[in-house]
Amino acid sequence: MKKHTMSQTDNDISQKQERFLRLLKPSHDSLARFARAMTKSGEEARDLVSDTVEQAFKHLDSLKSDEAFLSWLFTIASRIEKRRRWRERIFERFDPILHDEAAETIARNPNTDALYDTQILYDALQKLPFKQREAFTLFEISGFSLQEIQEMQGDSLSAVKMRVVRAREALRTMLGDTHSQERATIHHLTNPAATNQLSISKDKA
Fold this sequence. Notes:
Layout: H1 2-24, H2 28-38, H3 42-58, H4 69-91, H5 100-108, H6 112-125, H7 130-141, H8 146-153, H9 157-175, H10 180-189
Helix pairs in contact: 2-3, 2-4, 2-7, 3-4, 4-8, 5-6, 6-9, 6-10, 7-9, 8-9
């Protein structure tokens, strides 16, 4: 009886691992992009991805539908990042050197302009309020619909739309008229069909 129970447990674990890897594989790159946009450095982004994957596997049994895996994964990542930032504010553990890794990467890569432009955008994203940055990243970079973001953020659809619009305007202001190439990076990273979903005009933002 004991051997049978142990064998059944091993089989359950194996099936859980297979299911998790099957769901994670097509979602990993999207998660990595989201993590990079939500954090201050590549190292923090990798930590966020790692922590998210660990928590997602641990709580996989709570996932009600495989079709909801990606939004469920992003919700976990968002909660982890919120807790991390809360701890930073409490203990004032802000790293004064934020760009060393990016600078080293740019120096090693021949396509420095594209990397520089992307880093400029990531730096600007960090200056947005958390929910604006989250909504913008999910909508523009990760390609989620406004309705899906509404479910993840737990607010009204109009509130989500307003956050995306305000984030766009704030980024345009921060990047400024002298950074046309950096502003173009927003369009390079974003979902091509995203603009059509926004019904709020610039004047209302």
